[in-house]
């Protein structure tokens, strides 16, 4: 449901990482964010691929974001609707040696000699919180539906001291877990399952982590905003009316698309004609003409006019139909 947003989030973090100075204080934090996001996307894809390959008559939703209260949302990686349950699968794509600890509950990552490398939130507690919140959401919407769930370890991690309560599976254990809902009579019909899935989809509110700089706390002045090389990320120079070149000899005739996309992903959800003129060193008429080539919503009038992007996939120029 929110695949394009996750991919844009990855693109945005990669942009920041490549544009930050090597010794910037936030560089390592951005690297960790990007690593975590990519691991999460990979784990989620493994679970989804396995579920789709099962071919069961279930409805499979992902990246679900449901409002519980103003400013309070329930986020679910993978949600499967069967005749008897709404099943949450919390994917964890982790390797190395992992140990579940209590007091407080957490998941520790250890090296080969048992030394602590890092500590994470306990995924079992995270799952239990998600299940409780989904039950509340169903109750609030007058929907009678039992909730189940499991943490799915999709990586090659060696697990120690798994929790006594809760369901912790390897990916191939999903089949046995879910197939029990297809034996016996009763439960929702196929039509009712589809209707419930559609009800959830219409109330899904995708989380937009943009503009990213506000969230990760990096100053606008710390990044370059004019066109940059897609190969080495250094500043591009205009060498003719149409051509832009980097000192590494990479050239392009369209530095505009990625530069505007970078603005929207990192700096602001809107842009003005004046800001476009400053980015590319072009006239007011040229800036207006450039903005008209993209699927942007025009808001306001005169000097107060702003152009807004909807974040639906990578920014592309509007196709010209012959």
Model description:
The protein is an alpha+beta fold and 322 residues long. It has two domains: 2-203, no CATH class; 224-308, no CATH class. The protein is built from nine helices and 15 strands. A hairpin with a 2-residue loop joins strand 1 and strand 2.
Which geometry do the CA atoms define? globular
Distance between the termini: 33 Å
Secondary structural class:
alpha+beta
Strand order of the largest sheet: 1-2-3-7-9
> What's the number of domains?
2
What string, H for helix and E for strand, traces the elements in order? HHEEEEEEHEEEHHHEEEHEHHEE
As a percent range, the share of helical residues equals 25-40%
Alpha plus pi helix count: 9
Compute the number of strand runs.
15
Stretches with pLDDT under 50, minimum 5 residues = none
């Amino acid at each position: 449901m929110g695949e394009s947003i996750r991919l844009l989030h990855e693109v945005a973090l990669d942009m920041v990482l490549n544009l930050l100075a090597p010794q910037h204080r936030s560089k390592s934090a951005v690297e960790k964010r990007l690593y975590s996001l990519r691991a999460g996307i990979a784990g989620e894809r493994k679970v989804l691929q396995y579920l789709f390959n099962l071919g069961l008559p279930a409805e499979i939703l992902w990246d679900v974001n449901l409002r519980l209260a103003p400013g309070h949302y329930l986020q679910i990686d993978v949600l499967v609707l069967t005749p008897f349950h709404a099943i949450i699968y919390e994917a964890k794509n982790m390797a190395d040696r992992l140990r579940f600890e209590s007091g407080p509950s957490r998941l520790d990552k250890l090296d080969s000699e048992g030394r602590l490398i890092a500590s994470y939130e306990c995924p079992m507690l995270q799952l239990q919180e998600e299940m409780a919140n989904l039950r509340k959401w169903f109750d609030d919407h007058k929907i009678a539906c039992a909730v189940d769930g499991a943490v799915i370890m999709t990586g090659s991690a060696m697990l120690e001291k798994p929790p006594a309560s809760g369901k912790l599976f390897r990916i191939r254990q999903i089949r046995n877990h879910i197939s029990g809902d297809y034996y016996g009579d009763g439960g929702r019909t196929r039509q009712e399952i589809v209707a419930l899935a559609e009800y959830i989809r219409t109330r899904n509110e995708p989380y937009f982590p943009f503009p990213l700089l506000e969230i990760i706390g990096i100053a606008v002045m710390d990044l370059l905003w004019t066109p940059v090389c897609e190969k080495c990320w250094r500043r591009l120079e205009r060498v003719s009316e149409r051509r832009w070149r980097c000192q590494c000899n990479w050239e392009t005739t369209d530095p505009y698309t990625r530069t505007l996309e970078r603005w929207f992903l990192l700096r602001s959800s809107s842009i003005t004609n004046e800001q476009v003129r400053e980015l590319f060193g072009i006239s007011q008429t040229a800036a207006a003409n450039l903005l008209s080539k993209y699927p942007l919503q025009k808001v306001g009038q005169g000097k107060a006019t702003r152009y807004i992007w909807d974040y639906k996939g990578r920014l592309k120029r509007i196709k010209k139909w012959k």
